[in-house]
Amino acid sequence: MRYIQGFRDGDAARALSRLIAEEADTGRDYHLMEFCGGHTHAVFRHGIPDLLPGNINLVHGPGCPVCVLPVARLDLAIELAGRENIILASYGDMLRVPASRRDSLLNARSRGRDVRVVQSAVEALELAQQHPDHQVVLFAIGFETTTPPTALAIQQAAALDLPNFSVYCNHVLTPSAIQAILDSPEVRQLGQVRVDGFLGPSHVSTIIGSGPYEFFAEEYQRPVVIAGFEPLDVLASIRMLVRQLNEGRAEVENQFTRGVSRAGNEKAKNMVADVFELRPEFAWRGLGTVPYSGLRIKRQYQRFDAEKRFGLVAKDVRENQACQCPAVIRGVKKPTDCEIFGTVCTPRNPIGSCMVSDEGACAAYYRYRRYSEAI
Ligand code: SF4
């Protein structure tokens, strides 16, 4: 804890805030996207916007794994949980996410379906060992941080030759999402979203390294700074982005050197490469269908692929039209632009995924009271 406190020092934060204000060019604006929902929550938890000059605008990105999962794939998980003899193992955040017709995994559980909350992929594997008379399906979601544990669980299931364990794979890729944002009409043509640079995710980057972002810096001329989650990390990273933009540079810089290298974690990457391959396309909530942005289980492990084992095929569904999550995820709207934010839609009664997840932008605005002027 004492180690962490060093990154939360108030005097140091005020000093960094002064340096940013001195160095930011008053003749221009800076629009910086924090990709990761963890950063969005850190930004509000520590009052970062109040420490920045008015011409630095933080844009919230799509890096919330629960938020970007499309309703159709959540519907499939609920349908699967409704089948006989199935134990669906899910991370806790997913249970309250509204699916079609306001159904949810929590509702499925109240209907008597066997939906269990697990903290890790290996816990789901253990469930399968404890319940040999049931099919245990891990509802696997998340970016590159959670993919290696899923890969490991599948490798272990293969080593144990477990016949009753499978994975409903919804793992997605950060670089593809960043590219989808930069290629979106709102950024490229319409000018609705301005993104001058990115605060890059730190946890994801411990796995993939800082190397994959070099493409965006070069090709799209957008600087990227890999940022830690503590307030001094975030402020120092904003200062690094401001400096790059002032100097006309577009490079990848790594503020979070205590956890991220250029190459990332080779062991974890090899594990993922052994088990998963790219899907030709994956449908995201908010970003639409993005080529090569999701993972599926390789043929050699396909007996652990729940989509194949149970014949799961996603159907077209209509999103709740009142919910602005897709626009919030793309950075086009702020949560407070949604008409039902904080009134109909609250953490106790979430209408969209962005209000449920610990990494959702709407939940961050609500929890840290960035809304009093809006409702
Ligand atoms: S406030 Fe609720 S309904 Fe509105 S965008 Fe956020 S999650 Fe969706």
Provide a descriptive summary of the structure in words.
This protein starts with a helix and ends in an 8-residue tail after the last helix. By secondary structure, the chain is α/β, with parallel strands linked by helices. The strands form four sheets. It has a five-stranded parallel β-sheet with strand order 2-1-7-8-9. Strands 4-3-5-6 form a four-stranded parallel β-sheet, sandwiched between helices. It has a two-stranded antiparallel ribbon with strand order 10-13. The protein has 17 helices and 13 strands. The longest helix is centred in the middle third of the chain and has 16 residues, at 231-246. The chain binds iron/sulfur cluster. Residues 322-325, 328, 335, 338, 340-341, 345, 351-352, 354-355, 362 line the site of iron/sulfur cluster.
